[in-house]
Design a protein that fits this description.
flat, single chain
Length: 279
Amino acid sequence: MSDESAAEAEAEDEESTEEGRMSLLEHLVELRRRLVWSVIAFIICFLISYYFADSIFNFLIEPLARVWGSAGQHRRLIYTAMQEKFFTDLKLAFFVAAFLSFPVIANQIWLFVAPGLYANEKKAFLPFLFATPFLFFAGGAFVYYFVLPVAWHFFASFEQAASAGPLAIELEPKVDQYLSLVMQLVFAFGLCFELPVVLTLLTRIGFVSVATLRKNRRYAIVTAFVVAAVLSPPDPLSQLGLALPIILLYEISIICSRIVEKQQAREAEEAEEDDEAPA
């Protein structure tokens, strides 16, 4: 009988292992499906972005054209390598496609992860999924409408007319360097504008608290200027333009975290009342 029991137990183990393998296979198939849809979305956005690359690039150089004013009719951007403009368009299309396809990619990630979450966990994470692209777009808009005009005016002020020296010093940006600088600013500000999402989410899962955020406010201010010095171009206006919004976003994060803590306390009280209620 003991041999029969051992054989039955071994058979059950093999069946459970086979079920686990099938479950893993199903997860891999589902992951492949989500990756395929994400790649398709990115490729479609990339092709559309590349088709409109010239229009998008003209939109990005509009702040510089406004700084030059009426003299901009006689100004230009240059490229010094045969393939430079082509690769610049590819880089621009890649950057725009990543931004446009992010909601689709995030939705595919959500569809893959959501079945394994509880209802309260879905309710907790879903708002952050919608807030992430919105805040990144807000950071990019802040760069375009507020930071770029000030930064470009600062950089253009180093020009020198021919009458002020033996030779004129004129600004003629290269297209790839201009796009790289704009992308660096957009990425830096967009990433920093995600601070409320990150800190509120950390508060939601109990990793940090409002008291901790308030206690470390002075360190956050110093960190903001350090991050601004690393991510932004090496001019004081751009660094100050990034550091001040980070500090403001940190204060907004404290407010959002306080709201989350109050909500969690309310939910805990309601759960206790339900447990104490007579059956």
